[in-house]
Amino acid sequence: MNSDSPAPRAGGLQPPSCALAAAPSGDFKSSARGLAFALAALCLLAACAVRHATTPRLPSVGVAIGCGADQNPNKRGTPDLADAQGREIASEVKRLFLGPWKELSTAPTARAKRIELDYDKLPNSTFAYHYPLPDHYLARNPHVPAPPPSVNLAVILGRLNPISAPLERFNSPQSLNNVTSACGLGVYRDTLLGAGFSQNLFICEPVHNLVRRLALTSSGVTFTAARAADEAASEFLASTDNWFRPEQTASRAAVLASYASVASLKGDATKGAAHFTASCAACHAYRGLGHALGSDLATFRTKPAGDFLAAILDPNAAIEPRYIAYNVDTKDDRALTGLVTDETATGLTLAQANSVKDKLLRSDVKTLRPSSLSLMPEGIEAALPPQAMADLLAWLRE
Asked: For the chain, N or C: smaller number of CB within 10 Å?
């Protein structure tokens, strides 16, 4: 669970459970503090069990604690995000205590489960694989051990050259400046950039805010990949902005074209509300849900689907001045991005997702510069395919 996701909410009056979701990359300190809040809530319930020993009317509580993904550029090493999550849990526990209780016929039990996510099995720690022969052909003869169907095109090309300030990593710190999130691979088949760029691979690496270019050379039935001579110690594209986060090499125009059918799809508003909570509520408040950071969605309610799609899928096409994000580097080596909501002669307030606010003294700020990118990242189509987008628009326009 990303730390910029909405905090998990406790369950209804069901058998108690506690699910601990641990992703392999994230903010250990924030997770530990959030877990402390959850355990405090469970201890409160245990105390209630003693108090009501003669009348065992206990509410249930389900708590899910996760860790922030490396792709989240919010501030690290502080309890702010975990504190917000803990307050959500505490609020839900309070609601359960004050709400109607149900008699239990048996003694309550608690369960804990650790969920392992198979990120290590995914090839995003390597820039590119080539599959000369589809695996289903190799699987035809079960009596012959088949060789691996893939060829790693970039075995020794994983070291990166980022120019953005590194964010704190509390697990796998050795992965700094090494590829951990390769995605959005594209093959350039034109010559507008120059003949030397034709048939080159371009791969996004959002954790380090860069795009790598690899030149391909035929080698039998497959290829070899190498760095371009003029990029041996640099990247094809890199940014100092920790919100850059490139995720695909497709143009925004191509993405918008692929969503042209959304206007004709029938959306489910109920599902749309769930999509809003999962993908939009961290920065937008609408119809009683979410956090007010980004633009007011009520002003879009009567607009056509095309306007919604352009704003959602191509957020950098037009940025209102009042929503210009600022990148802040502090003297204690923190890299922050958000909206400047309050300014005085001696300080400023930087608003971020999930209602997180940093009050900074100007004397503690090393650099403050406006970003050329919207706070809303590109690539939301990865979480909202056309039908899900139609559901979201149905709810927004309901």
From this structure: C
